[in-house]
Specification:
With about 190 residues, this protein is an alpha+beta fold. It contains eight helices and seven strands; from the N terminus they run H-E-H-H-E-E-H-E-H-E-E-H-H-E-H. It is elongated.
Length: about 190
């Protein structure tokens, strides 16, 4: 392996995100030692046997790491669900992959985010600020950000992740005109 090359563990990420989408998975035959292979075959679209075996092995490893939980039901079936740590990891993955959805045609409205987060939450404020930059928003001032794209769901998600009271600390509005509009249009290639 080349020096400096870091392989991301996409199998765990893909498996956790798929389980998060599915919610709770229930499968019959939980007493069978091959029930994880049945889960992989039924709920995942892996084609080759090597990947199927690797995913089944990863499911068992994720249970040991307390990312998922297996619960045997009375009728001989097994319920598979995300544990608390698994949910936390899914939220982290969603945060890493989050992007603003860019519509095909801009509606001419600017979406402005203004926030004032208390000093007691300085780390949350810095992380929120960094993520707004990562989302590609334009910094009009230190705590005033602008985007030509709708962003309310993403802002609400960030507020939940960083434990910011969005009703008290974050304000969102839309407007047709904005200061420094030429500069902002150039920034967004509009």
């Amino acid at each position: 392996m080349a020096r400096g090359f870091v392989r991301r563990d996409t199998l765990t990420k893909d498996t956790l995100l798929a389980l998060a989408l599915l919610g709770v998975v229930t499968i019959a035959g939980g007493a069978s030692p091959y029930f994880l292979h049945q889960v992989v075959k039924k709920y995942f679209k892996d084609r080759d046997e090597k990947t199927k075996r690797a995913r089944a092995k990863r499911l068992r490893e994720m249970e040991r790491r307390k990312l998922i939980r297996f619960t045997e039901l009375g009728n001989g079936s097994v319920r598979i669900e995300l544990a608390f740590q698994g949910k936390q990891l899914v939220r982290q993955y969603e945060l890493e992959d989050m992007q603003l959805k860019k519509p095909a045609h801009w509606d001419g409205m600017w979406h402005v985010i203004i926030y004032d987060i208390p000093v007691a939450q300085k780390k949350a404020s810095m992380a929120f600020n960094r993520k707004l930059k990562d989302l590609g928003m334009f910094p009009l001032q230190r705590s005033v950000w602008v985007s030509p794209y709708p962003c309310i769901p993403e802002i609400e998600f960030l507020a939940v992740i960083f434990e910011i009271d969005s009703d008290k600390c974050i304000c969102h509005f839309t407007t047709r005109t904005i200061p420094r509009e030429k500069e902002i249009r150039r920034f967004f290639n509009l």
